[in-house]
Amino acid sequence: MTAATERDLMRRLGELGIPATTRRHEPLFTVEDGRHLHEGLPGGHCKSLFLKDKKGALWLVVALHDTRVDLKLLQKALGAARFSFAKPDLLMEVLGVTPGAVTPFALINAEGGARDATLSVVLDARMLAEDIVNYHPLTNDATTAISPGDLLRFIREMGYEPAILDIGALGGWPAGGRPIPDPHGQSGPNPV
User: pTM score, two decimals?
Assistant: First the structure.
């Protein structure tokens, strides 16, 4: 497989009429590496996990950077077998990116769901409540800002229907100590 480049991604976003803004920075390999950029880049900063379950199903899980992801609770909520982090060679084979650059934009390399029919996408509901969300554009030396609605449209255009759940509330805690907005005007942990 020839993996899409950042330029290919920007061209595809343009074809879909999705506005995006990209800022260059030093390579980032972990959420912690990028904390110093948060003040200069508005919006929700996100992390993406590429997981494999015991039965071989693959999962791309995307949440705000400070969301506590309990893999045992998440696998139970999704009805998955035991989760582990997928190996780098499988990440490259399926999503065409290297560790440190995992992103929902990598679905461009698995467009149509044809590359791996066992890939499922899971998005954190709290992340989708942000005005802007930030992800690596297939490389970890830049960050691209996009609206959550446009992210959903991009994912669906790539052939995936994401599961949306409040990942941080699975353990009964709000991510980053923040209250979870309730559609009825109350705050606190919400059920999935």
Answer: 0.84
